[in-house]
Amino acid sequence: MLLFLFEGVLGRGTLTDGNMNFWQKIDKPIIGLSPMDGVTDASFRFITAKHGGPDVTFTEFVNVEAPFHAPHTLMRDLMYSEIERPVVAQIYGHTPEMFYKVAHIVCALGFDGLDINMGCPAKKVAAKGSGAALIRTPELARAIIQSARQGIQDWRDGQTLADLGIDPEFSAEIGLINRLRGGPEIGAARPLIPLSVKTRVGYDRIVVEEWMETLLAENLAAITLHGRTLQQGYKGNADWDAIGRAVAIAKNSGTLILGNGDLKDMEAVCRRVRETGVDGVLLGRVTQGNPWIFRAKDQVKQALNSAAGPTIHSPFVSLEERFRVLLEHSRHFEKHSMIRSFVGMRKHLAWYCYDSPGAAELRAQMVRVSRIEEVVQCLMAYAGSLGWQFELAEPALREHDARITNAASWLS
Ligand SMILES: Cc1cc2nc3c(=O)[nH]c(=O)nc-3n(C[C@H](O)[C@H](O)[C@H](O)COP(=O)(O)O)c2cc1C
To answer: Is the pLDDT of residue 5 over 50?
Structure first.
C-alpha cells in the first residue's frame, strides 16, 4: 500500500532538544500555515513549504478514532515530507483514552508537535462534543490534554505501539513510512514533543477570559486562537480585541499565543501583531492557491523589530511561475494522494487561476478536469485563446519541470 516515496528534500532536522521545544526556537512573530481540512493535505503542504516556507505547518485534523476504524485514512492524512518541518499533527475527538493512544502514533511518525483541535464548529464534529464544543466542557478538555500529554510522555519513556495493543501490521506501516520519508531516524532518541491547542474565543459568546484560564492551567506550549465563536462559524469578523485580551492573560505563563482569523496579507499580520502582542499567527484561507505569501515573512519580522512602519512588498509571482507551480502541485497530488481522486485537486487549480487574465473561463474549465493531462490541455487552450505560446512537452512534465515559455509577454 505504501510503496511510494515523498520527495527527498532536506528537512530542517528534529527540532526538540534540551529544554527548548521548536516553538521557542522560531523567531517571533511565528508565521505558520493554519490547518484546513480538505485543503492542507500532504501535497498542499509540500508545495507551500517549497515555494513559501511557513515557520510551522499543521496537518488537516484527524479523528482520534481513525487508527482503529480507518487506518488507511489516518496514514494518508498524517503523511508529510521532511521539508515541512517543524510539522505538527492535529487531532480531534472527545475520548481521552483515544488521545492517549494516538499521541503515541503521532510520536512514532516523527512529528515535531501534537495539536488538539478545540475549534472546529462543524456539526458532525461539535455535535459529538469534539472540536469547539469542548469550550463548553472545560473539565473534559483538560482531561483530553492530560491524556495526550501522558501519551507523549509514555512514548518518550519507551512504551511501544505493541504495548498498547495496536495492530502489528499498522505499526509496520508506520516504520515503512518513516524509512521511505527519510530524515532523522524515529525512535532512536525519543523526544518529548510539545503539545498545543487550537481553539476559538467562545462557544455562543466570547468567554476568552475563563477559557484561557482553563487552558493555561495545562502548561501548553502554544495556543492558537481563532477570533470567532463556534456559533459564528466563519461569519462576521474575527475579534482581535479578544485575542489581545488572551495575550495579556497569558503573559509570563510560558504558553505562546498565536492569533488567527481574516489575515488577508502580511501588512495585516504586522498590524495585528503590533496591536495585540501575539507571539505569532496562523494563516488559513489567504494561502489557498498562494504558497508564495510566506516568502514575505522575514520582512514582517524585520519590520516589527524596527521602529519603521510596515511596508511589506508582496512577492511578485509571474503567470509562468503560477502555472508551473500549479502543475507541480497537480503532479504531486496525482502521485501521492493515495485514495483521494483527482477531483480533490480541482479547487486548488481554480485558486491558482484566480488572478489570471480571463480567469473566470479558465476556472470554469479547471473545475471539470479529472487528470493532469486535462490540466495541461486547459492551459494550452488558455494560451491559444490569448495568442501566447506554451511549451508543455510531456517529457519535460515527466521530469517534474513543466515549463511554460514566453511568459514574460503574458502580463504585458
Ligand atoms: C476549509 C477549511 C477547513 C478547516 N479545517 C480546519 C482543521 O482541520 N483544523 C483547524 O484547527 N481549523 C480548521 N479550519 C480553520 C482554519 O484553520 C482557520 O482557523 C480559519 O480559516 C480562520 O483563519 P483564516 O481567516 O486565516 O482562514 C478550517 C478552515 C477552512 C476554511
So the answer is: no
Q: How much is the pTM? A: 0.91
Residue nearest to atom 23 of ligand 1 (CA): 261
Q: pLDDT over 70 for what percent of the chain? A: 88
Residues of the chain with CATH 3.20.20.70: 22-305
Mean pLDDT for all residues in the chain = 88
Per-position DSSP letters for 171-229, written without gaps between them: HHHHHHHHHHH-SSPTTTS-----EEEEEEEESSSB-HHHHHHHHHTT--SEEEEEEEE
Burial 321-360 (b: 16+ CB within 10 A, else e): ebbbbbbbbbbbbeebbbebebeebbebbbbbbeebeeee
Residues with CB under 6 A from ligand 1: 34-39, 60-61, 90, 117, 119-120, 198, 226, 260-263, 283-286
pLDDT of residue 56: 98
Residue 346 — pLDDT band, cuts 50, 70, 90?
very high
**Grid coordinates of 303:** 519590520
238 CA closest ligand 1 atom index = 25
What would the grid cell of residue 78 be? Answer: 498524517
The pLDDT assigned to 9 comes to 36
* Residue nearest atom 21 of ligand 1, based on CA coordinates: 284
Taking the centre of ligand 1 as the mean of its atom positions, its distance from the CA of residue 232, in whole angstroms, is: 13
pLDDT at 150 exceeding the cut of 90:
yes
User: What fold, for 22-305?
Assistant: TIM Barrel (3.20.20)
